[in-house]
Design goal:
alpha/beta, 8 strands, elongated
Length: 314
């Protein structure tokens, strides 16, 4: 069995087209595998949940969970993963920018022994500025991460059941699944594809959310900010000592020089600002430790479709 997971938030305009393609994919691959379709509704306020209810009544392969509140995109994917039954799980978005038909290519790679098969975006229909902003972000995250993270890769992937079980053991309050899965190891490979344009609805990812996701990736998978703070602090300390020695020598040879009250104020303000910046970095890591210790649930399932009570994991 292959589980296809789909996080949704106000995607009523895409549900029918998505299901039609998933149903056709199931018919095409019926001799190779069984499919189930797992939807996680991030508390939509349009007709998304009623439409899923209708689909689940017609097709038992359609299973869905609805959260008590919007828990964010990454948590929605993680909750979906935890409710699958398949030997492998394929993650797609509801907007059909990532073609579900690529399951065939992913499936072949999986049968060849790869535990993680991800889609590499060759091109995507968006503005030049946003496309290059993403590329810069992917490059920066890969460079500072403790382990390589594939570039131009989103959450469109197929993962083996062993990977899902490993992901379930990771304790994090704010998951960045691309980094988590990349850091777990296993045999991984990519398949190049062209991303389609969204045909209905609006994208939930603007620049601010992309920046927020990028910062989550950095703070979850890199210690570079902490080490950079220590390194920069050492450099400033060395410059301060050199400056102090230079000032003492200068005063010995030129006692008539006026005392620099303004320069002292500038140096003090600079030191205060620098310390605040370093404390902010440390605070980001402490916040993540605190949230892990607090152990909030990934999500609270408010409603479910075609799930028994014993199958609900959250």
């Amino acid at each position: 069995m292959i589980s296809i997971t789909v996080p949704v938030l106000n995607e009523a305009g895409n549900i029918d087209a998505l299901y039609a393609r998933l149903h056709a994919l199931g018919e095409k691959m019926r001799d190779r595998c069984d499919l189930e379709f797992i939807f996680s509704d991030n508390c939509s306020d349009d007709a998304t949940w009623p439409m899923l209810t209708e689909l689940a009544a017609r097709d038992t392969r359609v299973r869905a969970i609805r959260f008590s509140k919007n828990v964010g995109f990454q948590r929605s994917i993680l909750a979906n993963y935890l409710h699958t039954r398949g030997d492998a799980v394929m993650q797609i978005d509801a907007d059909l920018q990532d073609p579900p038909e690529m399951l065939e290519a992913f499936f072949e790679k999986w049968q060849q022994g790869y535990q993680v098969v991800y889609g590499i975006r060759r091109k995507r229909p968006e503005s030049w500025l946003l496309r290059n902003f993403r590329r810069l972000g992917y490059w920066a995250i890969d460079k500072v991460s403790e382990h390589p993270i594939p570039r131009d890769v989103g959450d469109f992937r197929l993962v083996d059941r062993k990977v899902i079980e490993a992901v379930a053991k990771v304790r994090t309050s704010n998951p960045y699944l691309r980094g988590i899965i990349a850091g777990l190891g296993f045999r991984q490979t990519g398949v190049v594809y062209d991303r389609d344009a969204r045909t209905a609805g609006e994208s939930k990812f603007n620049v601010s959310r992309l920046v927020q996701l990028g910062l989550t990736a950095v703070f979850n998978h890199s210690v570079v900010p902490l080490r950079a703070a220590s390194f920069l602090g050492l450099i400033i300390l060395s410059i301060s000592l050199i400056g102090a020695i230079y000032y003492v020598v200068l005063r010995l040879f030129h006692p008539e020089l006026p005392r620099g009250l303004a320069s002292m104020h500038i140096l003090v303000l600079f030191g205060i600002g620098l310390n605040s910046f370093f404390l902010g970095i440390i605070g980001e890591y402490l916040l993540r430790i605190y949230l892990v210790v607090r152990a909030d649930p990934v999500a609270i399932v408010h409603q479910s479709l075609n799930f028994s009570a014993s199958e609900l994991k959250l």
